[in-house]
Amino acid sequence: MKGEIFSIDNKAEELLNKYGFENQYPLKIVSLANAMGLKVYYAEFNDSNIVGAISKKDNPPAIYINYHDNHTRQRFTVAHEIAHFYLHMNNDDVPEIIDMYRGGDYSKEEYEANMFAAALLMNADEVKKQYHLLEEDIDLIKEKKLFGDRIYEELISKRLASYFGVSRIAMRMRLNTLGLIRSV
Description:
- By secondary structure, the protein is α+β, with helices and mostly antiparallel strands.
- It folds into two domains: 2-121, Arc Repressor Mutant, subunit A; 124-177, no CATH class.
- It has eight helices and four strands; from the N terminus they run H-H-E-E-E-H-E-H-H-H-H-H.
């Protein structure tokens, strides 16, 4: 699995470099989608469990994100749909429309899209760099001594989530995947 994550991280970095979006935090994800020739629309879905969809039958291809979701959820959804477009939709066997559901299926494609979205929004090297800088923060060191690892990890996750423009849970999952924290 570690090799698979490394490969996905490399593909995400490749995409960012191709369109000139490397070293941008938080990543302007809609601008990246536009640079790739994708349009992004806010939508109201009949099924409230749908958070997003991508359609290659539209011209240009379009990403639809749930209008009612919060901003960080919408950013992750755009990144997730970009992942489907970049990784999965270059093949005629793939449906013209892919929907993303809350707590949806965990097929290989959905797993890859989630990992790719995380890598786009939270570059591994930058996450590690920022994490290690926070480890040296005197105030956080005091918090760790006072409240323990769990609160310390939550504080780091909160600061990094803000830096990368993602939710705290997405940040905690990325930190866990990168081996920087133990719990999610």
